[in-house]
Inverse folding.
C-alpha cells in the first residue's frame, strides 16, 4: 500500500519550515571543519530564511496537508552555543507551517537540542508529545482502514467496472422515495467488506422492484458493477446470467474467468463463468439484484418449478445482494418488509404525477380515492394512468371503482413498470401457489370476500362450524389448523395480523387483508356470486353475537360490527333475488319452478335471517347507534309478524327491543304505543292459555 494512504498523522519536532536562526553559526562551523576534512555547506544554504527550496516544499505540503493530522512542535527556550551566547535555533514562526489544514502547534518547554531527549516518562516534554501521539493513534485505525478500502475499491473498479444499466427492468417515472427503507438498505449493504444481503418482501404491487431500482441509482458509484436478474424461474435467471456474460466480455474481452465463453455456449457454462468472475478475490464490490423470487424452493414448497437461489449465488464471501420476493419465507440476509405507503401525501403525489393533472393534492375526491386504495402503489399508479387517458373525473373514477371493479381494472392502461401485470391479475400467481400448497387456504380466501377485510379470527369461523362444509370443519378443527391455513396466505403477503388486535385487550388476535386485495377476492377470486359462502358468513356472524352475560361482550360486539355491515348488504340482496325469481316464474306460468324457488327460501331460513336482523339491532343499540338499531328492529318485527304471527315469542321480544330503543331516544309517544301493543298481546295470550286450561281434555282434541 502507498505510504501516503497509510499515513494518518505527522508530528514535526522543531522542523525549520522557513529556515533557522542557527544557519550562520552552522556555516562558520563548516568553514572551520573544512580545514581538516572536505565539507559542503549546500544543505545549510537550503535552510536559509525564505530560501527558494523551502518555499517550494511548503507549497507542495500545503496542497496535501488536509489529508493528514499535523502537529508542529517548537522549542520555547534558546539553545546555548559557543562563546557563552544562546540562540532560538528554530523559532515558532518557522516551526509552525502557516496555512496547513487540520494542524496544531505544540509548545515544548526546552531548547532545540533537548526537544526529543527525555529523562523519564514523567518528563513534561515526554507527557506532551506522547499524549498527542496517543490521540492520533486512537483515530488512525478507522481512518486508515477506510482509506485502504477505498483504494482497494478504486483498484478493483479499474479491472472489474461495468457501465451502469437498467435495461433489464422497467423503471417508474414517478417513484415516491421511501427514505427510511432506502436508509435501512444502505446501512446493511455498506456495513463491511464481507458479503452483505437484503431481502425485500411484501404483497405484490407494493413497489419492491421500484425500491430496489431507486437504491441502485442512488448508490451506483458505491459498486464496481450492478447486475439485474429475473429469478421467477430457472430459465429466466439463466438467461439473465447469459446477458451478464455478454456485458462483461464486451467491456473486458480478456477476462480470464470467461475464457472460452461464446454466444452459443450452453447456459450452464455461462452461469459458471460469470460466477467465477464474481468470485475472484479482487472483484469484491459488485451488487446483484435477484428480482421476482416468488417461487422459492423451501421445505414446505412442493410447487413444480420452485427455484433454489443458492444455486445462483456466488460462493465467495464478498459482494452485495438484493432479493425481491412476495414470500415471507425467503431470508437472504437482512429481511425488510415493504408495506403500503403510510403518508397520504405520497399517495396523492403518485396519482398526481401519473395522471398529469393539476390540483390533485388538494382535491377532496382525490383524498377519498387514495384512502380507498390504501397506499398500494400499483393501484395508485393504475388510477393515475386511467385518469391520464380519460376525461373521467376523480369522483367518477371512485364510483366506478366501487361499482364496476373488474371491468375498470381490465380496461385500465398497462403500467410498464409492472411488466405484464394489472391490478386484477397481479395476485393470480400468489393464488396459484396457495392452491397448490393448501386448497383450504384458497377456500378461506374465497369465503373472506363475504366478510369485512379486517379482523377475522378463529373463534368467529369456529362458531357453528360443525354444520358447515368439510373444508371449513378442517380449517376450524383447532387453533393450529386455523393458524396453518392463514400462514400459507401470509407467506405471500395476502393477509397479515390485524394491527388493531395487537397489544390490546380485544380478545383473540385477528387477521386482515389490504382493501384492494379484498376487492380482488370479491370480483376475481369469486367470479360469480356464491350464495352458499354468503350464507356461511351470515351464520358465523349471527351465531357469534354474544349475550350480555358474556364477559366483555361489548368488545366482541364492536369487533363484529364491521362484519355485520358487510353481511347486511348482501343478505337483503339474497332474499330479494329469491323473491324476484319466484315472481318471474309465476308470471310466466311456470308455477312448479316458482314453487321450487320459494321452497329454497324456506320458512326456517327466513326466521334465522330475521333473528340475525334482530341481533344486529342489539349490537347497534349497545354501541350507541339507536337509529340504526330502530331500523333493524322494525325490519325484524315485520318479518316475524308475517312469518310467525303477532303473538309469537320472537315477535314480542322484538317489540320489547323496539320499546327500549324508543325510550333511549326519548320518543315517549312511540315507546308508549309499542308498550301497549306488547302488553295487549301478552294479555290475550294469557287469556287463551287460561281458557285452554279450563277446557276438558277430550274437547281439545
Amino acid at each position: 500500500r502507498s505510504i501516503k494512504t497509510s499515513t494518518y498523522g505527522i508530528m514535526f519536532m522543531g522542523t525549520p519550515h522557513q529556515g533557522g536562526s542557527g544557519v550562520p553559526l552552522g556555516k562558520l562551523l563548516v568553514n572551520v571543519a573544512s580545514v581538516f576534512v572536505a565539507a559542503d555547506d549546500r544543505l545549510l544554504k537550503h535552510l536559509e530564511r525564505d530560501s527558494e527550496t523551502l518555499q517550494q516544499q511548503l507549497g507542495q505540503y500545503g496542497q496535501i496537508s488536509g489529508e493528514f493530522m499535523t502537529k508542529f512542535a517548537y522549542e520555547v527556550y534558546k539553545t546555548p552555543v559557543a562563546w557563552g551566547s544562546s540562540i532560538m535555533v528554530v523559532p515558532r514562526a518557522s516551526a509552525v507551517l502557516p496555512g496547513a489544514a487540520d494542524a496544531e502547534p505544540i509548545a515544548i518547554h526546552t531548547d532545540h537540542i533537548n526537544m526529543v531527549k527525555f529523562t523519564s516518562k514523567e518528563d513534561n516534554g515526554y507527557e506532551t508529545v506522547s499524549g498527542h501521539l496517543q490521540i492520533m493513534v486512537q483515530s488512525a485505525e478507522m481512518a486508515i482502514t477506510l482509506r485502504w478500502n477505498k483504494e482497494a475499491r478504486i483498484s478493483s473498479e479499474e479491472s472489474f467496472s461495468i457501465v451502469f444499466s437498467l435495461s433489464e427492468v422497467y423503471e417508474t417515472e414517478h417513484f415516491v422515495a421511501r427514505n427510511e427503507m432506502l436508509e435501512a438498505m444502505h446501512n446493511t449493504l455498506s456495513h463491511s467488506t464481507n458479503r452483505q444481503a437484503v431481502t425485500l418482501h411484501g404483497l405484490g404491487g407494493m413497489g419492491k422492484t421500484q425500491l430496489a431500482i431507486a437504491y441502485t441509482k442512488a448508490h451506483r458509484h458505491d459498486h464496481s458493477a450492478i447486475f439485474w436478474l429475473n429469478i421467477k424461474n430457472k430459465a429466466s435467471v439463466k438467461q439473465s446470467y447469459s446477458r451478464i456474460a455478454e456485458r462483461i466480455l464486451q467491456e473486458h474481452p480478456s477476462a480470464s474467468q470467461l475464457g472460452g465463453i461464446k454466444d452459443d455456449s450452453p447456459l450452464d457454462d455461462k452461469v459458471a463463468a460469470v460466477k467465477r468472475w464474481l468470485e475472484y478475490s479482487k472483484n469484491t464490490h459488485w451488487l446483484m439484484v435477484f428480482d421476482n423470487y416468488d417461487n422459492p424452493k423451501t421445505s414446505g414448497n412442493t410447487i413444480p418449478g420452485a427455484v433454489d437461489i443458492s444455486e445462483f449465488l456466488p460462493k465467495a464471501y464478498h459482494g452485495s445482494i438484493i432479493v425481491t420476493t412476495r414470500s415471507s419465507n425467503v431470508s437472504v440476509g437482512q429481511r425488510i418488509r415493504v408495506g403500503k405507503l403510510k403518508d397520504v401525501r405520497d399517495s396523492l403525489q403518485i396519482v398526481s404525477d401519473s395522471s398529469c393533472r393539476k390540483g390533485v393534492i388538494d382535491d377532496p375526491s382525490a383524498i377519498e380515492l387514495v384512502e380507498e386504495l390504501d397506499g398500494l402503489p400499483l393501484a395508485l399508479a393504475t388510477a393515475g394512468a386511467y385518469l391520464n387517458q380519460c376525461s373521467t373525473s376523480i369522483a367518477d373514477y371512485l364510483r366506478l371503482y366501487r361499482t364496476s371493479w373488474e371491468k375498470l381494472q381490465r380496461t385500465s392502461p398497462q403500467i410498464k413498470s409492472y411488466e405484464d401485470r394489472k391490478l386484477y391479475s397481479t395476485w393470480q400467481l400468489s393464488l396459484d401457489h396457495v392452491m397448490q400448497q393448501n386448497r383450504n387456504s384458497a377456500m378461506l380466501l374465497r369465503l373472506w370476500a363475504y366478510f369485512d377485510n379486517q379482523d377475522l379470527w378463529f373463534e368467529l369461523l369456529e362458531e357453528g362450524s360443525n354444520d358447515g362444509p368439510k373444508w371449513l370443519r378442517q380449517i376450524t378443527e383447532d387453533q393450529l389448523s386455523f393458524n396453518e391455513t392463514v400462514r400459507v396466505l401470509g407467506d405471500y403477503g395476502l393477509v397479515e395480523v390485524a394491527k388493531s388486535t395487537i397489544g390490546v385487550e380485544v380478545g383473540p388476535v385477528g387477521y386482515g387483508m389490504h382493501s384492494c386485495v379484498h376487492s380482488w377476492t370479491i370480483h376475481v377470486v369469486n367470479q360469480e356470486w356464491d350464495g352458499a359462502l354468503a350464507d356461511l358468513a351470515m351464520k358465523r356472524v349471527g351465531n357469534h353475537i354474544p349475550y350480555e352475560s358474556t364477559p366483555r361482550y361489548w368488545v366482541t360486539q364492536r369487533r363484529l360490527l364491521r362484519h355485520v355491515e358487510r353481511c347486511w348488504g348482501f343478505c337483503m340482496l339474497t332474499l330479494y333475488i329469491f323473491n324476484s325469481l319466484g315472481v318471474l316464474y309465476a308470471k310466466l306460468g311456470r308455477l312448479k319452478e316458482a314453487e321450487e324457488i320459494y321452497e329454497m327460501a324456506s320458512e326456517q331460513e327466513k326466521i334465522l335471517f330475521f333473528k340475525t336482523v334482530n341481533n344486529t339491532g342489539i349490537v347497534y343499540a349497545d354501541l350507541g347507534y339507536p337509529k340504526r338499531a330502530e331500523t333493524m328492529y322494525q325490519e325484524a318485527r315485520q318479518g316475524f309478524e308475517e312469518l310467525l304471527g303477532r303473538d309469537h315469542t320472537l315477535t314480542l321480544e322484538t317489540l320489547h327491543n323496539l320499546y327500549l330503543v324508543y325510550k333511549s331516544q326519548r320518543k315517549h309517544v312511540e315507546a308508549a304505543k309499542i308498550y301497549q301493543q306488547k302488553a295487549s298481546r301478552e294479555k290475550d295470550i294469557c287469556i287463551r292459555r287460561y281458557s285452554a286450561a279450563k277446557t276438558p281434555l277430550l274437547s281439545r282434541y
Notes: The radius of gyration is 41 Å.
